[in-house]
UniProtKB/TrEMBL annotation:
Pfam family, one: 5_nucleotid_C
Protein's name in the database: 5'-Nucleotidase C-terminal domain-containing protein
UniProt-listed GO biological process terms: nucleotide catabolic process
Organism annotation: Rhizoctonia solani
Sequence segments annotated as region (Disordered): 388-408
Family note: Belongs to the 5'-nucleotidase family.
GO molecular-function term, one example from the UniProt record: hydrolase activity
Domain 5'-Nucleotidase C-terminal residues, every copy: 291-469
Polar residues composition bias: residue spans: 388-406
């Protein structure tokens, strides 16, 4: 089982993870994390395996090969797990653990022919692992070795299969032979890493949009005192690109699968398919900027919209005992945004939940200016970087090779404007942080000035490695997950649009016309005042009888629900995204 799955599941509470893993029919492998047992020893996490050994038949007359599989988690991953879960185990160095386990598995009594590593790590960390454990083909290692060593004489890892970053990537030692997928969407390029001098790494992206078919050519080693009895001659990958893959196209004979599919279709998918809004006409060139891969790397249209929407929602739905300041700052990371498909013309409830799927609630807290600077510095330290020249790159690298981006820490903000320089070292990147309401007003980098910050529960507990968040004061928990807040924000737009929609269907509009102050109560009052006109209106025959309508709005909450429902029956609210980012996260290195 891929280590990535184990780590993503640790974003749940540890107790819940322990419950669910017992139902799995496949192994979970995590080699460099240990927990303390009742007798005081450090051991592999409960229900997980330190390694797994499998035998694979190579075909008639070719014998078999014994493969040792290890799972390695990077330090960056710890910051992505639930804070309470991360405290239940300690992490060992992935590089030394990988090298030690490779040697152990190749020795007696295991006698493995090959060692494959499943990782949950950044691109740079996988490259470092491959370089230190010599994940090369036989010929490439001989070319790189100063003493022209033979690969069979040194221990190490043969092939790395990685997760964590959401981009497809293969090391420069892997031959990319073919791509399958939609004719108009066949990606065949990805950035190389200048530290990669021929490594055998395969990372297949996210959300099962891509699967990699890997063909490994082996050669049996000859000689004595061998560290690798079998070496890799070549690795060929066919990339199967399947965006929007539909499992319904594949039938199953299993009665259980049929039952589960029916339950899923009617009890889960049906409400998720409920339309909640329409997307205003958006230029096609903006669609890539509305995907969440962009939000993980730089300022994006989708990120800015979510950030502003969270602030608008909180101003309207904050707890009654809370005073919302004029300058309310919102901060989260691009990794909080998940789906990687631009919206269609009609936005469904499931689209919003996919966008912000985590059940972490919105919170407001008080933070010092110094801690806000600390959060932004930490978030930008490993974020998008610049092109490197050929002189900086290693052998066989092309000009203008791009370094890879971070793992989703890029700040998504509202209420502030940040200038930073991606060419600077990590902690020196942030130049200015100003309040959006007053460009001349700085967020002061000291402990004396305090500000109100809106974020979510995971980050405020120092999630994603943003440790300065843990210094917060005066926490207010809305107990509302972000996806629910966003759905309510859209619902608010429906309510505000309701009077206009309903009144425009009346031949005789409500007495006094439409109110200038469009708060929800004045809207409802004017709608009700026009109900009698509606019953006589020839173009509203599809509406239910007004008497039934009045009976159903006996209390204000029901009244609002019915107004919104009636509005959406006639016309969904229109979401108008900005036509471009507004440079609230300005990278001086790019001049934008």
């Amino acid at each position: 089982m891929h280590a990535s799955q184990a780590i993503m599941s640790l974003t749940l509470q540890r107790e819940r993870f322990d419950q669910l893993v017992e139902f799995c029919t496949f192994p979970w492998i995590l080699s460099n994390a240990e927990e303390k047992t009742k007798d005081g020893r450090w051991d592999t996490l409960k229900h997980l395996e330190r390694y797994r050994i499998i035998n694979r038949d190579l075909g008639p007359g070719l014998g078999s090969v014994k493969i040792g599989i290890i799972g390695l988690m990077s330090p960056d991953t710890i910051s992505k797990t639930d804070a309470s879960a991360a405290k239940t185990f300690k992490l060992k160095d992935m590089y030394s653990t990988g090298q030690h386990l490779a040697k152990e598995l190749r020795s007696k009594p295991h006698n493995c022919d090959l060692v494959f590593a499943l990782t949950h790590a950044l691109f740079s960390q996988d490259v470092a692992l491959g370089s230190k454990t010599l994940a090369y083909t036989k010929d490439r290692f001989h070319e790189l070795s100063e003493k022209k060593q033979e690969l069979k004489m040194v221990s190490g890892i043969d092939l790395i299969f990685g997760g964590h970053n959401h981009d497809y990537f293969i090391g420069s030692g892997v031959n990319h032979v073919y791509v399958t997928g939609p004719p108009n969407d066949l990606p065949n390029k990805w950035d190389r890493l200048w530290e990669d001098h021929g490594l055998l790494i395969v990372k297949s992206g996210t959300d099962f949009n891509d699967l990699s078919e890997v063909l490994v050519e082996l050669e049996v080693s000859n000689g004595v005192d061998l560290k690798r009895k079998v070496v890799v001659k070549s690795v060929n990958v066919t990339r199967h690109h399947m965006p929007g893959w539909n499992l319904n196209e594949y039938e199953s004979d299993s009665r259980l699968a049929t039952m589960l599919n029916n339950l899923f279709e009617h009890q889960v998918l049906k409400p998720l398919k409920t339309p909640v809004a329409r997307l205003s006409r958006t230029p096609q060139h903006l669609l890539p900027d509305m995907t969440t891969d962009i939000a993980r790397q730089k300022e994006s249209v989708i990120g800015n919209w979510i950030a502003d929407s969270m602030v608008h929602w909180f101003r309207k739905h904050h707890p009654c005992n809370v005073i919302v300041p004029k300058d309310l700052i919102f901060i989260m990371t691009g990794g909080s945004i998940r789906t990687n498909s631009p919206f269609g013309s009609v936005i469904k409830q499931g689209d919003i939940i996919q966008l912000l799927p985590f059940d972490t609630s919105l919170v407001m807290c008080t933070m010092t200016g110094a801690d806000i600077w600390g959060v932004i510095r930490a978030a930008l330290a490993g974020s998008a970087t610049y092109d490197v020249s050929a002189s900086q790159s290693g052998p066989d690298q092309q000009k203008n090779t791009k370094t890879r981006t971070g793992s989703g820490k890029f700040p998504v903000v509202s209420g502030i404007r940040v200038t930073w320089d991606s060419k600077k070292d990590g902690q020196d990147r942030v130049k200015t942080i100003k309040l959006s309401s007053n460009p001349k007003s700085n967020v002061v980098d000291d402990k004396d000035h305090t500000y109100s910050v809106l974020t979510h529960q995971y980050l405020v507990n120092a999630g994603d490695g943003l440790k300065s968040f843990s210094n917060h004061k005066e926490l207010v928990d809305t107990e509302v997950p972000m996806y629910k807040a966003l759905l309510e924000h859209i619902r608010d737009l429906s309510a505000e649009d309701a009077a206009g929609v309903l009144v425009n269907t009346f031949v005789s509009p409500p007495v006094g016309g439409f109110p200038e102050n469009r708060n929800i109560f004045s809207i409802i009052g004017y709608i009700l005042s026009g109900l009698s006109a509606r019953t006589q209106d020839s173009n509203t025959n599809d509406w239910q009888d007004s008497t039934n309508f009045l009976e159903s709005v006996a209390n204000p909450e029901t009244m609002v629900d019915r107004v919104v429902e009636a509005t959406q029956m006639r016309r969904l609210p229109i979401l108008s995204f900005p036509t471009a980012v507004d440079n609230r996260m300005q990278d001086l290195a790019l001049g934008t």
